[in-house]
Amino acid sequence: MPDRLPALDAALLYGEQPSTPMHVGSVAVFERRSGGLDFDTATRVIGQRLDYLPRYRKRLLPVPGHLAPPVWADDVDFDLGYHVRRSALPAPGTDHQLFDLFARVMQRPLDRERPLWEAYYIEGLEGDRVALVTKAHQVLVDGARTVDLAQVLLDEGVADRTQAETEWTPRRLPGWPRLVADAVTDAASRPGELVENVRFLARDVVSSVGRTAQGAGALAAAARSVTGPARTAPARRLNSKVSGGRVFAGVRTELDAFKRIRSARDCTVNDVVFTVLTGALRKWLESRGHHVQSTASVRALVPTAVQHEDAEFSPAELTTSRLVPYLIDLPVGEPDPMLRLQHVAHEMAEQFGPDRPVTARTMVRMGGFAPATMNALAARVAGSVPRRGFNVLIANTPGPQEPLYAGTERLSAIYPVLPLGRDQSLAVGVTSYQGDVYFGLNGDRKAMHDVDVLADMIEESLEELRGNKW
After folding, report:
1. Which residues pair with residue 132 across a beta bridge?
2. Bridge pairing between strands 436-444 and 426-433
3. Residue 208 confidence (pLDDT)
4. 365 Cβ neighbours under 8 A, 6+ residues apart
5. Would you kindly state where each structural domain of the chain is located, as residue ranges?
6. Interstrand relation of 246-254 and 129-137 (parallel, antiparallel or unpaired)
7. In this structure, is the dihedral angle defined by the CA atoms of residues 67, 70, 73 and 78, taken in order, positive or negative?
8. Tell me, what's the pLDDT at 169?
9. pLDDT < 70: residue spans in the chain
10. How far is it, in rounded angstroms, from Cα 122 to Cα 105?
11. I want to staple 396 with a disulfide (CB 3.0 to 4.6 A). Which of 7, 141, 430, 435 is the partner?
12. Sign of torsion over alpha carbons 216, 205, 247, 141
């Protein structure tokens, strides 16, 4: 049987536009203390790790007449040098310059004639640091058969990367008669999929997604929240039509600050993270001259991996655990930071119900940097929710607190990036690593030209919470 793209993924692929490329990514920063992570070493490491990711050497073949979704097939012309690229900042490059380059890399769609991923080795950073930027299409990373490249590149200790790459021999591409014959066979055995293919041809993407999403229960959970986006004028500023340009800003904060607030207020670190973002959005809206009414809110789509309170997951099961796209109203109109925290904690408790987010300890058992894969899955889930139902996409995935390495080089910082929808001008990825919490702000270059201001507001909002007399 052909390795056919699932119906939901096909809907996402067909709905992609040049202005809204559907890939996720991250920018990982390394301190070259031993000088070992040069471009050739990085390329060799990536090539070796592709043995764990067979789909990273496959491309999508469309079926003639769109009789069925595309199939995965070996890229007979696979060229590692095309996918792993080298770039540099004018030394000594700053983090701001790195983020600007990262935004330009992320705004470019991936080439559908090749495997749907790219990696960039960026040198010239001040302090003899280098960055490794990865980007992968949502349909490439499904969590079950394929994880994100960033997850398998990083090890819990200094790793021996001197082993030779396994020789890989691609299989011949199937011709159009075989593609058509397989599509007809599949349609005969699963007639329901033929109906979905007609919807794809009509580009009724939202309808297709709503009917074919495997997480139908997750969609129902989201629908149990309030329908439609927050109606206040400030919130609608986040629903501007997206252009092709991107801006990015990264924020690094101390995890201990979030833990102290959690302990003082008997809430969760996740509650504190979203309260900090709520305060930052409030300050950002005010910086634009908006009068934020006391009842104003911003509706966030929050894809979350959850498990029942009595359930236990193994690392292998975690990637296929249920991700629920919760809709959370962030009370940006509340001026008191402590009351904001109470509102957010109450909202989170109401939404999760008997389920609970998968713990950081469980994430760590997955090995490598699991948040990279979980963010890719979160983006897939977000693609199954009507875009007009929320104002901003936010995904918070806890990461390991022990140092990770690429070869001999230690990972010193990592910032996630989530894709923008057609009418969403901001997406926020959050993760933790080795005692810090990292925020990745991906914005539309026109609507969010001042994304750096929002980044500064995150730090101010955290300080505002820390400064309260508990």
Report:
1. 28, 121
2. antiparallel
3. 38
4. 314, 315, 318
5. 215-401+412-466
6. unpaired
7. positive
8. 86
9. 34-35, 159-165, 190-234, 308-321, 364, 367, 387, 468-470
10. 11
11. 430
12. positive
Q: Is 54 exposed, middle or buried (0-12, 13-18, 19+ CB in 10 A)?
A: middle
Q: Could you tell me the CA-to-CA distances from 179 to 58, 98, 173 in Å, in that order?
A: 16, 43, 10
What is d(CA 345, CA 222) in angstroms, rounded to the nearest whole number? 18
* Among the listed residues 42, 438, 18, 464, the one whose alpha carbon sits nearest the alpha carbon of residue 248: 438
Tell me the three-class secondary structure of the chain, residue by residue: CCCECCHHHHHHHHHCECCECCEEEEEEEEECCCCCCCHHHHHHHHHHHHHHCHHHHEEEECCHHHCCCCEEEECCCCCHHHHEEEEEEEEEECHHHHHHHHHHHHCCCCCCCCCCEEEEEEEEECCCEEEEEEEEECCCCCCCCCCCHHHHHCECCCCCCCCCCCCCCCCCCCCHHHHHHHHHHHHHHCHHHHHHHHHHHCCCHHHHHHHHCCCHHHHHHHHCCCCCCCCCHHHHHHHCCCCCCEEEEEEEEEHHHHHHHHHHHCCCHHHHHHHHHHHHHHHHHHHCCCCCCCCCCEEEEEEEEEEECCCCCCHHHHCCCCEEEEEEEECCCCCCHHHHHHHHHHHHHHHHCCEEECCHHHHHCCCCCCHHHHHHHHHHHHCCCCHHHCCEEEEEECCCCCCCEECCEEEEEEEEECCCCCCCCEEEEEEEECCEEEEEEEEECCCCCCHHHHHHHHHHHHHHHHCCCC
pLDDT score at 310: 61
- From CA 81, how far away is CA 58, in angstroms rounded? 15
What is the pTM (predicted TM-score) of this model?
0.89
CATH number, domain 215-401+412-466: 3.30.559.30
**Alpha carbon of 283 to those of 27, 292, 444: distances in Å?**
27, 9, 19
Q: For the CA atoms of 35, 36, 38, 41, what is the dihedral angle to 10 degrees? A: 180
Predicted pLDDT of residue 233: 58
Dist. CA 371–CA 166, nearest whole Å: 27
pLDDT tens digits along 81-139 = 999 999 999 989 999 999 999 999 999 999 999 999 999 999 999 998 999 999 999 99
Q: Which two tokens stand for residue 263?
A: 């302990």
Residues 6+ apart with CB under 8 A from 289: none
Q: Which residues, including other chains, have CB under 8 Å from residue 161's CB and lie 6 or more apart?
A: 41, 44, 45, 48, 407
* Burial status of residue 330 (CB atoms within 10 A of its CB: 0-12, 13-18, 19 or more): buried
Give the span between the Cα atoms of 329 and 226, in whole angstroms. 9
